[in-house]
Write a structure and sequence with these properties.
The protein is of the alpha+beta class. It has ten helices and 13 strands. The protein has two domains: 182 residues, 2-Layer Sandwich (Ribosomal Protein S5, domain 2), CATH 3.30.230.10; 173 residues, 2-Layer Sandwich (Alpha-Beta Plaits). Bound molecules: adenosine-5'-diphosphate and magnesium ion.
Length: 367
Amino acid sequence: MARAPRIKHYHAPGRVNLIGEHTDYNAGFVMPIAIAVGCDVRVSSIRKKEIRLTSKQFAGDLSFPLNSIADMTKTGTWADYVMGVAKEILALGFELKPSHLAIDSSVPTGSGLSSSAALEVSSALALLGDNEVPKVELARLCQRAEREFVGMPCGIMDQYASVFGEAHKAIMLDCRSTTHKLVPIPDGAEIVVVNSMVKHELGSSAYRNRVAECQQALSHFPGKPALRDVTLGELERTAAKMEEIPLARARHVILEDLRVENFLVAAEDGDLPMMGKLMVESHRSLQHDYEVSCEELDSLVDTALTIDGVFGSRMTGGGFGGCTVNLVDPEFVDAFEREISARYQEQWKLTPAIYRFSPSAGARRVE
Ligand code: ADP
Ligand code: MG
């Protein structure tokens, strides 16, 4: 009797960013947590010399001959996230084995919870198999896949959070040094994520524009490698020479980095009101200076701030839809969920999905 093929199972989580939005590609600070939803990849050996991909969530049974992968170009399908990773693994000098990757993810796509990084990181582990790379290299190779193959000029936050996530702790990541500090989430607050259930098409082109606008702003500061290196005083002294839009984008990035640092201090002090206040300031900055929010997200934040037990609320992820993250007193979470759901439905005729997330472990082999 033929033996059933041995299946190896890998898991990589999605993430929710507590604060520090659009700072990662400016070499700044972010503070994500890895979450309990993630992407599972079950990998088995196959005879045919190819990588075969199937996904429970996306149609298509896609196959790529092993000898074509090094030179392959973007397909424009979801397979690009995995094949970009495969190419990076080859570029590092590892061999790919003929395999079938069966993908099954519980991260809602395009909601700002990073289904893409969960897919990349779990696929990378599956394709690497017994070939180990340092964890930070794992995050970096996945980021390169998304930037260079998929063509999304993303920072390192999503992949890093998926790799380095830890139970009970947020990760304060310095995106320049790619090192992190673990941050305790004080007792007395739950992280509640509300999905607006909208995703405005503008999203990916606006993301590219923001990356470009930050570069434009940076060109006013010769010798500074990134907006991370520009102080508020320097921005103020240069403001008169800058156009309004790059100035506002730089103001967001510089103040957002400071907010992440202050959020860390507040978290270590167990100062939930201060953490909440910083989240709201972050949202207002993303709304008015960075202009990546949308009416649905603004209404979720404005509504949340009228509900008892809410310390703070902000959009999370790239913007133009997706989720808000809320810091809520545990005793009030049930009432918060009922109230925000009812009021959002009334206003937008959409039922928001609501998730209670606690910080979870990063990517790993399951069995
Ligand atoms: P986010 O990362 O915020 O969820 P992105 O636009 O960056 O949104 O990534 C979403 C894309 O990732 C999907 O459109 C799809 O191409 C790919 N993807 C995510 N999850 C899966 C999955 N389970 N199966 C196949 N492709 C997936
Ligand atoms: Mg993504």
